[in-house]
Amino acid sequence: MSELVTGDAVVLELRPARLPSRALAAAIDLAVVFCVFILVSVVVGIASVTLDEAAVAAIGVALFLLVLIGGPIAVETLSHGRSLGKLACGLRVVRDDGGPIRFRHALVRGAMGAVEILMTFGVVASIASLVSARGRRLGDVFAGTLVIRERVTAKRSVAVPPPPPWLVGRFSQLDLSAVPDGLWLAIRQYLTRMHQLDPGVGRSMAARLADEVVARTGIAPPQGIPAAAFLAAVVHERQARDARRVFSGARGASAAAPVPVGGAVETAGGTVGSAGGIAGAVGFAAPGGDVAPTVPGGAVVSGGSGASAGGAGSGAEEQKGAGGSSAGFAPPG
Predict the structure, then answer these.
(1) In the prediction, which pLDDT does 73 show?
(2) CA dihedral sign of residues 49, 54, 55, 60
(3) How far apart are CA 293 and CA 299, in angstroms?
(4) Which residues of the chain carry a pLDDT beneath 70?
C-alpha cells in the first residue's frame, strides 16, 4: 500500500503494480502493437513497390515512430492511462498525486519506453522496476507517473459496533427523518474505523458528527454520554426501525386467506353455490357470527337454500329486525 498526498492534502491509499503484472501488461501491449505494425508494413510495402530504396527506408522509419512509439502514446493519452494490456491486468497509469495523466506524461513514458523496453528488450525497465520501492521504471520517474492496481481484493465488510446496553432503546422517540443518507454513511464509516484513528482525531470527528445529528433532530444527547456512544445508539435505533418496517411489511403480505362460510347466495340471476358463494361475495367472516351476503337491491340473504326475490326482501327485513347489519356482516356474538 502506498500513500499519496494530493494537492488538497488528501491522503490516497494506492496499490502500486509490481513487475510481474506490469510485465504481463507490457507483453500484451507489445504483441498488439507488433501485429498492427506488421499488417501496416505489409500494406505499405505492397503499395510502395515502385518507390526507390531511400523512400522505402523513410517510410519504414516513419512506421516505426508512428506505430511502435506513437501508438502507445496515443492510446494512453486517450484512455487516461489504460492500454489494452493494463486493462486486461487491472492496471492504470496515474500521476504522482493520483490524478489522470495527460499527453506530456504519455509522451515522456513512450519516449523512454522506446529505449528501456524496445531497444534493450525490457532489461533496463525490469531492473528499474525491481529497484524502485513503488515498482516504477525510468519512464515513470521522468514523467512523474505511477502504475497502480485498480482491481484489488474486496475487503470483508465490518459491522457497526453496538451501543452500550444502557443506551439501547433510549432514543426510540427521536425523529430521524431529517438526517440525510450522506451523514448516515459518514457515521457508519467513522464507527467501523474509529479504533484505527488517533484518539484526538477520533474524538473531534465524533463530536462533529454528533453535532450534525443534533442539528437535524433538534434534541441534544443527555449529559455525560460520549459522542461515539451517542452515534452508535442513533445508528442502532435506525437499524431497529428499518428491521421493524421490513418485518411488518412481510407479515402484512402473508395475511390469512379468505375463510369460506356455509350457505348460498341468491343474486338477480339465480343461486350461487353454498360454500364458495359466500366467500366470493363477502370475502371474510365476521368474528363470532355468520356472514349474511348482500345482493343487488339491498337484500340480505341468510344461509340455507335459495329463495325468490320477494323472499329475499322479507329475509332482509327479518335480519334488520334481529339487529343485523345492512353492510353484509352479522354482529359478533
Answers:
(1) 93
(2) positive
(3) 8
(4) 1-13, 151-158, 250, 252-333
Record the pTM.
0.46
Q: What is the pLDDT of residue 102?
A: 92
- Under a CB-based contact definition with an 8 Å cutoff, are residues 137 and 96 in contact? no
Tell me which residue of 290, 225, 281 sits closest to 258, measured CA to CA. 281
Left (φ > 0), alpha (ψ -120 to 50) or beta: where does 105 sit?
Answer: alpha
Q: Are 58 and 48 in contact (CB under 8 A)?
A: no
Nearest CA to 80 out of 16, 147, 1, 3 is that of 147
Query: What is the structure's pLDDT at 246?
Result: 85
Q: Are 77 and 102 in contact (CB under 8 A)?
A: yes
CA distance 100 to 292: 77
Q: What is the DSSP string of 207-250?
A: HHHHHHHHHHH--PPPTT--HHHHHHHHHHHHHHHHHHHHHHHH
Q: Residue 149: beta bridge partners?
A: 91
DSSP 3-state assignment of 201? helix
Output the pLDDT for position 314. Answer: 43
Give residue 333's pLDDT: 42
- Phi, psi angles (nearest 5°) of residue 64: -60, -45
pLDDT tens column, 295-322: 444 444 444 444 333 444 444 344 444 4
What residues pair up with 92 in beta bridges, in sequence order?
A: 148
Which of helix, strand or coil describes residue 149? strand
SS3 154: coil
